[in-house]
Amino acid sequence: MTPPALGQEIYSRGFRFCPTPQEAVTHYLPRLISGETLRDVVRPVIHHADVYACDPAELARRFQPMPRTDDRFFFAPYKNKAVRAASCPSSWAAHNTAEIKDDEGVQVGELKKLRYKKCGVLTDWLMDMYSSSCGDNDQQQQFMFCKVYVSPRAASSSDARHESAAFFALPPLPPATPAAIIAQSAAKMTAPPLPQAAMPP
Length: 201
Prior knowledge:
Elements: H1 8-12, H2 21-34, E1 46-48, H3 56-62, E2 72-77, E3 90-101, E4 107-118, E5 121-132, H4 139-142, E6 143-150, H5 159-164, H6 166-169
Parallel strand pairs: 1-2
Antiparallel strand pairs: 2-6, 3-4, 4-5, 5-6
Domain NAC: 11-151
GO biological process, one term: regulation of DNA-templated transcription
Pfam families: NAM (PF02365)
């Protein structure tokens, strides 16, 4: 019998990875922070990168999107830090924030919606950023789970749409700088391995 497909293959067959805000902050984020091994079907689709240190176009080139939706999921350091260049400062601009509550109405985290601004112009790149407010561990406040995607309202000619498709259109890039990639386990952040770019299928 052929073993079931895992990772990207299984999602190409109709399965979806679409965690709710509550699942993002109470299930995935704590496990990612502690370094706990995730299920085989989930592990390949949650990338580890510093999304604030990279232009989303660079993330799109390095990390494969989800089939059907083109969403990309990341475990990343939590910091409001712009990606800056001398000639063209860029940053993620927040435009909406909402509390995430559990089934009993207790706040367990925060959902922040952001849009990428490049050279002073808003682009069609969006990010949903999930942060936890559970527990006393400082690490809970230092990391986030996020989804980076192109606005559903973006025109077919949008630069963001073309950038999002770059993973399949361009040859593999050399490994990213260590500052752009974070270690698999937050507990081992002091000595991360050298990063490697994702490889197209």
